[in-house]
């Protein structure tokens, strides 16, 4: 019978940190007039700033329709909702006000209150998101887009643009990246129609969409947008601006993901020169970390160590010995020393990072700690310390919780755990981990990705060890279809699945 092939599951890496991705917030000043087609979507951005539900879900609010007959009630209730949000007193009370305001505006939307209705729907959706009730925010935002589309003029275009961007943020928080990207693209089209394709505000939205494409691993699309952004900078921005430097860092991230390391290094060096000239010491250190990673890819290890050590010195001096940025550099150095065969130094740097994660500074983001633990677990796995790696992954999953926006991240962790369970001969646990990862990937629209195909293959191998040959065959067949589509018939991962499928056919007498 042919031998079985374990398609290599790539070590899970956290989603790339987005550069200069500002989180957009609700505008609570009722007198503020937004600039035409500037982003003002109030729900969480697709960066790591996810809204978390820490408040008990309230019972459904009962609306007394008779109390909504006064057309002045809507603006009053909307102001109350905004004031309550600003005070931070009671989000459930703000939700009550926003629902009633929307009902009132809906009743009088034919009397010149269409834009007021849209505004109230945006606020209502933002409150739902702040409570973690993303599914309820989606139809509210869809209704806002529908109302905006019925009107004419720049104000309605602004409202429709903001609705699409906020809806994209909401889908991103739910882990539905494809839908999120589609919404951002729709918003960009509206903005270009209103402002032209070279307006600086268009560059701002292009940056946001490019970051979303990076999150979705769609690097060709992200690169095209980055090129457009840099062209707009060339036309409108002063030389060596901070905005251009940030966009060059994003372009470097995309080039690195595509394997174009020389171009990535060029963009990072240009960005670093700008930051040095502007006196942005911490930003220079962050760029040094990225440059170090590029040097590793180019096998220039001495230069990589020098870049990492430069960054480490700055972070320790400016942020303190126990800052998460210091731990992050320790992890980079641990990975580098593993690659060059200095295993003792590698493990020492891992331990240094773990000491920081064990007692993080107040305010440290749990997501950043979870990402760091996941990266260290990959190094321990490479060092054949699988039990320790499993412990770290379990800690990371506990920190991330079950928020929808973490679905893909947790799926990646579960896949890594499945690989380690398999290597330890714990095939039942491996099967459960792969199955759970597959369910999450399907739910988030990733069922056609190459990573999903690899998870299916690994799950099939676990089935064979459990003598579930028919189930393994089905998994290998689905994996074949996915990998043929995503990687091609001659890719090594696809060939590995062919071999496994042939083995199961042989075992079944087919």
Could you explain the architecture of this structure?
- It is a single chain.
- This protein is mainly alpha-helical.
- Among the domains are: 196-278, Serine Threonine Protein Phosphatase 5, Tetratricopeptide repeat; 280-351, Serine Threonine Protein Phosphatase 5, Tetratricopeptide repeat.
- 70% of the residues lie in helices and 0% in strands.
- The protein has 21 helices and no strands.
- The protein has helices spanning 73-87, 91-107, 114-130, 134-149, 154-173, 177-195, 200-215, 219-236, 242-257, 261-277, 281-297, 301-319, 324-339, 343-358, 366-382, 386-400, 407-423, 427-443, 450-465, 469-486, 492-507.
- α1 packs antiparallel against α2 and α3 (114-130) runs parallel beside α5.
- The longest helix is centred in the first third of the chain and has 20 residues, at 154-173.
- Mean pLDDT is 84; it is low at 8-63.
